[in-house]
């Protein structure tokens, strides 16, 4: 279940403590530069140790966690919560999340005028 090894791959650890749904997503986030350990961008094979600060951008939200225990295999949610200290800022309220533009069903494609209006709204 949990192991007390000195270090483990960052992509494996992120997946093991349930910060991402799959290990593949964790590796992709590392390669895209969305994972930082102690302020430095890291590759998926970077060895993370207890006490390291991991910053991860996942799902449009920044997660800041400090590694308190290194685990190699995926663990249950209760055990995963004990493996890191979450210092992330609270998520924004639901009212502040941008609303997606909605078109009526059957309205067809947006016209050039509609597109320009949308761009004007988005760019301020």
Automatic annotation (TrEMBL):
Residues 8-75 form the RNA-binding S4 domain. The keyword DNA-binding applies. This is Ribosome-associated heat shock protein Hsp15. Keywords: DNA-binding, RNA-binding, Stress response. Residues 93-107, 114-124 have a biased composition (Basic and acidic residues). Residues 85-124 are annotated as: Disordered. One of its GO terms (biological process) is cellular response to heat. It holds the Pfam family S4. InterPro entries: HSP15 (IPR025708), S4_RNA-bd (IPR002942), S4_RNA-bd_sf (IPR036986). PROSITE patterns: S4 (PS50889). It comes from the Bacteria. GO terms for molecular function: DNA binding; ribosomal large subunit binding; single-stranded RNA binding. Belongs to the HSP15 family.
């Amino acid at each position: 279940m949990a192991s007390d090894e000195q270090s483990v791959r960052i992509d494996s650890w992120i997946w093991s403590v349930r910060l991402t749904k799959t290990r593949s997503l964790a590796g992709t986030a590392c390669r895209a530069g969305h994972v930082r350990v102690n302020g430095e961008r890291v590759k998926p094979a970077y060895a993370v140790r207890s006490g390291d600060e991991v910053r991860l951008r996942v799902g449009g939200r920044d997660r800041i966690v400090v590694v308190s225990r290194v685990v190699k295999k995926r663990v249950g949610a209760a055990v995963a919560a004990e493996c890191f200290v979450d210092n992330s800022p609270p998520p924004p309220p639901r009212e502040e999340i941008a609303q997606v533009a909605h078109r009526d069903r059957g309205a067809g494609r947006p016209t050039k005028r509609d597109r320009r209006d949308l761009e004007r709204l988005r760019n301020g």
